[in-house]
Amino acid sequence: MVDCSRLCRNLVLSSSLQSLSLSRVSNWQNLTNLIESGWKLKSLSLCQCNIDFSDIELLVKSLRSNASSITDLSLSNNNLSEDSVIKLGGALLSELFSLTILDLSNNPLSLTCIVCLIKMLHFNTVLRVLDIRACLKRDDQECKKAIVDLIRMNEFVEIRWND
């Protein structure tokens, strides 16, 4: 894991940066202050950053700020807990979010998580792509049925998954 404290200090100087991909980075939470301060980042990837529930709470708080301009968020490969996905899904019910792409691929999603995401997509008119590839156990027929129903109900959102 890499510590990104120094990186964050240097990024403050770069107002033109639009995309940032951090993989296996610890202490990425320093970025939340930049997000809230009006930093014009469009795409943020936090893959394999060991994100837990308190991290999701912090990220949601930052994304809710009026200054957040992030439209593409990847949280793939983080082994997100059910509570984390539910917190994120609940937050996405708000139209204040500017996210159009959400990548949750390679995280274990339960039926409860899928139902939460279905509810979120029913009310969120901004999100256009939801990536949930490699999130289900092979034999989880209930989740697969819920996803098929989700796809049927949502003609405006591209749902990426593998059946």
UniProtKB/TrEMBL annotation:
Protein name per its UniProtKB record: Uncharacterized protein
Please tell me whether the keyword rRNA-binding is annotated for this protein.
no
Spell out the subcellular localization from the entry: Cytoplasm, Cytoskeleton
In terms of PANTHER family, this protein maps to: YNEIN REGULATORY COMPLEX SUBUNIT 5
Q: Which Pfam families match?
A: LRR_1 (PF00560)
Superkingdom of this entry's organism? Eukaryota
Q: Which UniProt keywords apply?
A: Cytoplasm, Cytoskeleton
Where does it sit, as one GO cellular component term? cytoskeleton
Instruction: Read off the InterPro entries from this record.
Output: DRC5, Leu-rich_rpt, LRR_dom_sf
